[in-house]
Every structure is written in structure tokens, then in C-alpha cells.
UniProtKB/TrEMBL annotation:
Name of the protein this chain belongs to: Lipoprotein
Keyword field: Signal
The keyword Signal is annotated on this UniProt entry: yes
Signal peptide: 1-21
Domain of life of the native organism: Bacteria
Record keyword Signal present: yes
Length: 195
């Protein structure tokens, strides 16, 4: 019995040490097949992220920037700020509304509170005729007070095909911003944690 308590104490010690290293991170939520099936029936693109922040961070701002052929045309589209506790979730989905504009849903949940925003992107007509690719951060990133790109949805009418933004883009956006020129339209989901 004494040996079991020691093993348990060591396990608690090691897992609490790991939890400490998990502060100030954003990670892609690992969905079950069932959750993926549900999301695919109600949205064309969906992105879910968990975050853990130390107690110094007081709020989170999430927004979407829109680029056309690499040029920023709409900054902080769907901008939202919410006070945060130490952990929470960011959810972003889009729905193609046939020949009309795309619809977006953006939500932040933390500490039992949820804020959400939804609406159309009035300048998105015609995207349904283009090829789309999307991507997210590698499984997990560490953040500071600078903005980070969490996900992208990119559209192209290229006849030769199109590929997603590379992982390096999310790690160094400024150094890879020229990659956005390969797409007719690109949406970047961004976040900024504030103290």
C-alpha cells in the first residue's frame, strides 16, 4: 500500500510538472470521428482550438483578416474580445451559402462564459466555384503577447491545382507572407492574448 502511494505521488508530481509546461499554449482539438462527422454536416470548414494561459493573461481577441492575391483587403473582419480564465476554446466555422455570401461563426469560450459572432461575408460571392484548401497551426504552439495565426482558408481558381500553406507559414507569418500571393482569396484566423 505504501508503495502505491509513492507511485501515485510521483505520478501527480510528474503530471503537475507537465501541466506547468502547458501554459501559454494553443493546440488543435483532436476530434473523434463522431465529432468530425457532426461538424462536417453543419459546416464546410471548422477549426477548434484549446488554449491554456497563465494568470497574467486577462483577455483574448480573435479575428479574421482577408487577403486577395496577397494584399490585405479587410483587417479584423469579425473581431471579438473576451475576458479569459486560464483555459478555454476558440471555434471558427464557415458555411458556403450557394451563390450568396459565405457565412461564418466565431466563438470563444473560457471560464464558463462564451462570446460568439456570426454573419455573412458580403464580398465572398463566387468562392464556391474556386478550389479551396485549409490548414492550421502544427498541433500546438506557444504564444506571447504578439498575434498568432491559428488557421487559414485559401481559395484559388488555378487550373493547375493548389496546395495548403506550409507549417512554416504559421511559425513565421512575416517571413512567409508572400505565399498568400498564390491564392485569389485567403482568410487568416488570428488571435492575440493580452495581459
Amino acid at each position: 500500500m505504501k508503495k502505491m502511494w509513492r507511485i501515485f505521488a510521483l505520478l501527480v508530481f510528474f503530471t503537475s510538472g507537465c501541466a506547468f509546461n502547458e501554459e501559454n499554449t494553443v493546440s488543435v482539438v483532436d476530434l473523434t470521428e463522431r465529432e468530425e462527422a457532426i461538424l462536417s454536416t453543419v459546416s464546410d470548414h471548422s477549426f477548434l482550438f484549446d488554449f491554456t494561459a497563465d494568470s497574467e493573461y486577462k483577455e483574448l481577441t480573435v479575428w479574421v483578416d482577408k487577403y486577395e492575391s496577397g494584399k490585405l483587403v479587410e483587417k479584423k473582419f469579425s473581431n471579438m474580445t473576451i475576458p479569459i480564465e486560464q483555459d478555454g476554446m476558440v471555434i471558427y466555422t464557415t458555411v458556403n451559402n450557394n451563390d450568396k455570401s459565405n457565412l461564418y461563426n466565431l466563438a470563444i469560450s473560457s471560464g464558463g462564459s462564451t462570446a460568439s459572432s456570426r454573419g455573412p461575408d458580403p464580398t465572398s460571392a463566387g468562392l464556391e466555384k474556386m478550389m479551396s484548401v485549409w490548414g492550421t497551426i502544427p498541433e500546438k504552439i506557444t504564444f506571447g503577447e504578439e498575434e498568432v495565426v491559428l488557421a487559414s482558408i485559401c481559395y484559388s481558381d488555378s487550373e493547375t491545382g493548389v496546395s495548403s500553406l506550409p507549417e512554416e507559414f504559421y511559425e513565421n507569418v512575416e517571413g512567409h507572407k508572400n505565399e498568400l500571393e498564390d491564392y485569389d482569396v485567403a482568410y487568416l484566423l488570428k488571435a492575440e492574448f493580452k495581459k
